[in-house]
C-alpha cells in the first residue's frame, strides 16, 4: 500500500500541505514544532479515525480554522487498484468519503487505508492499560478477517444495551436476552482474537530475533476477559449480574480482554525498562504489519515519529532494512538527518518541514 498523494488542511499548525510521497522511504526533517508529527498524524487519522495524541477538542483543528480536512490517494497491490479517501472534522463530528462515496461509519473508512504507527507513546502497547492492546488485536482482525467487523459491532451494540438495562434496573428476562446476544457475538469474537495472537506468535518471535534479539524468545498470552476455562460467556454474565447491577455496567466479557507479551530475557516477569518496552512494542507492531503483509500481499504504510530519539542507530538500521525487504512505504520524522538511513539506499525522498510548510528537497 503506497500513499501517492497526501493533502492536509488546517490540522494543528498545518494550514495547507499537498505532497507526493515516494514509494519507499520518506524522511521528514525539521526543527521542534515545525509540524512533522502532524503530517504523520494526518495519515494515522485517516487509518484509525483517531489521533495518537489527544482528542479533536484538544486542539487538532488549527486555531482560527473551522474544520480540518485530510485527503489521501494511494495505490494497492497485489490486485492493482487506485483508491482515495477524504476525512473532515468541523468541530462536531467526522465525515468521511472513500472512493467518492460517503461512509456511514468511520469504521468503513478505517478499513480502507492500512497504517501502522510507531511514535513516542507506543510503549503503552506493552506498559500501559488494556485498551491499546485490545485495539491492536482488533486492528489486525479488521484488516484480515472479513467477518470480524460485524461481530465486533454486534458485541458493542449488545454491551451498550445490557449496560443501559443494568443502570435502569430492568427485569431479569430482559437481561437474559442481552446476555445471550453478548455471548453469541462475544464467543466467536474471542476465538478470532485468540487465533490471531496464536498466529502472530511465530511472526513476533522471528521479528524479535531480527530486530531485538537481546529480548529473547517472545510469548503471547491472551486473557479473554472472563474465566473462560471454567465458564461460557453467557454463564459468566449471569454469575456477575448482581455485581454488574451494583456497578451499573458489565464487568466481564471480551471488552475486558487483554493480552501480554513475555520475553525469555525477563524470565521472572521483571518489568521491562522503558527502552525495552519501546523495542517490545515496536516488535509487536512490526509483527502485526508483517502478518498483514503475509495475508494481504503487501505491507501497510509504516509511520515512525521521532525515530532517532526512539531508537539507536543500530536498531534503526535493522528496522529499516526489514521494511525495505518488504518494500513497505515508510514515513520517518527527525529533527536532523539521522544516522542509519543508509539502509534506505537511493529510494529515499527527503522533505524539509518548516513552520508548517513541507518542501521536497
Ligand atoms: N490547533 C493548533 N493550531 C495552531 N497551531 C497548533 C495547534 N496545535 C498545535 N499547534 C502547533 O503545532 C506545532 C506542533 O506541531 P508538531 O507536528 O508536533 O511539530 P513537530 O513534530 O515538528 O515538533 C507547535 O508549534 C504547536 O504550537
Ligand atoms: Mg514531533
Give the C-alpha Rg.
Answer: 21 Å
Unreliable spans: none
Going by CATH, the homologous superfamily of the domain at 1-114 and 300-361 would be P-loop containing nucleotide triphosphate hydrolases
What can be said about the biggest beta sheet?
6 strands, antiparallel
Give the mean pLDDT: 94
Task: Describe what this molecule looks like in 3D.
It contains 11 helices and 14 strands. The model has no long low-confidence stretch (mean pLDDT 94). A 6-stranded antiparallel β-sheet has the order 2-1-4-5-6-7. The protein has 361 residues and is an alpha/beta fold. The radius of gyration is 21 Å and the shape is globular. The longest helix is centred in the middle third of the chain and has 40 residues, at 172-211. It has a domain at 1-114 and 300-361: P-loop containing nucleotide triphosphate hydrolases (Rossmann fold). A hairpin with a 4-residue loop joins strand 5 (81-89) and strand 6. The structure holds adenosine-5'-diphosphate and magnesium ion (MG). Residues 12-13, 30, 32-38, 59, 61-63, 353 line the site of adenosine-5'-diphosphate.
Keywords:
361 residues; 6-stranded mixed β-sheet; 6-stranded antiparallel β-sheet; binds magnesium ion; globular; binds adenosine-5'-diphosphate; alpha/beta
Amino acid at each position: 500500500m503506497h500513499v501517492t498523494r497526501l493533502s492536509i488542511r488546517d490540522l494543528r499548525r498545518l494550514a495547507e500541505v499537498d505532497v507526493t510521497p515516494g514509494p519507499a522511504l520518506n524522511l521528514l526533517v525539521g526543527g521542534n514544532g515545525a509540524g512533522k508529527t502532524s503530517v504523520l498524524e494526518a495519515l494515522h487519522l485517516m487509518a484509525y479515525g483517531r489521533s495518537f495524541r489527544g482528542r479533536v477538542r484538544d486542539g487538532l483543528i488549527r486555531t482560527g480554522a473551522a474544520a480540518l480536512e485530510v485527503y489521501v490517494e494511494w495505490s494497492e497491490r497485489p490486485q492493482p487498484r487506485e483508491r482515495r479517501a477524504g476525512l473532515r472534522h468541523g468541530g462536531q463530528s467526522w465525515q468521511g468519503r472513500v472512493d467518492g462515496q460517503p461512509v456511514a461509519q468511520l469504521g468503513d473508512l478505517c478499513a480502507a487505508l492500512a497504517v501502522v504507527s510507531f511514535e513516542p507513546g507506543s510503549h503503552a502497547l506493552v506498559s500501559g492499560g488494556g485498551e491499546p492492546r485490545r485495539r491492536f488485536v482488533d486492528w489486525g482482525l479488521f484488516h484480515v478477517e472479513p467477518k470480524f467487523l460485524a461481530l465486533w459491532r454486534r458485541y458493542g451494540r449488545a454491551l451498550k444495551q445490557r449496560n443501559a438495562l443494568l443502570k435502569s434496573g430492568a427485569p431479569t428476562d430482559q437481561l437474559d436476552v442481552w446476555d445471550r446476544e453478548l455471548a453469541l457475538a462475544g464467543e466467536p469474537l474471542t476465538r478470532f482474537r485468540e487465533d490471531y495472537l496464536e498466529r502472530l506468535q511465530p511472526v513476533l518471535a522471528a521479528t524479535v530475533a531480527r530486530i531485538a534479539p537481546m529480548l529473547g524468545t517472545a510469548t503471547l498470552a491472551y486473557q479473554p476477559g472472563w474465566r473462560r476455562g471454567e465458564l461460557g460467556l453467557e454463564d459468566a454474565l449471569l454469575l456477575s449480574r448482581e455485581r454488574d447491577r451494583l456497578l451499573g455496567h458489565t464487568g466481564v466479557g471480551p471488552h475486558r480482554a487483554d493480552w501480554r507479551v513475555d520475553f525469555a530475557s525477563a524470565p521472572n516477569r521483571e518489568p521491562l525498562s522503558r527502552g525495552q518496552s519501546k523495542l517490545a512494542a515496536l516488535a509487536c507492531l512490526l509483527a502485526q504489519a508483517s502478518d498483514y503483509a503475509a495475508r494481504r500481499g503487501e505491507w501497510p504504510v509504516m509511520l515512525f515519529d521521532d525515530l532517532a530519539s526512539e531508537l539507536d542507530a543500530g536498531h534503526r538500521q535493522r528496522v529499516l532494512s526489514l521494511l525495505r525487504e518488504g518494500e513497505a512505504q515508510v514515513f520517518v520524522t527527525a529533527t536532523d538527518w539521522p544516522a542509519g538511513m543508509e539502509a534506505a539506499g537511493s529510494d529515499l525522498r527527503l522533505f524539509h518541514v518548516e513552520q508548517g510548510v513541507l518542501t521536497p528537497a
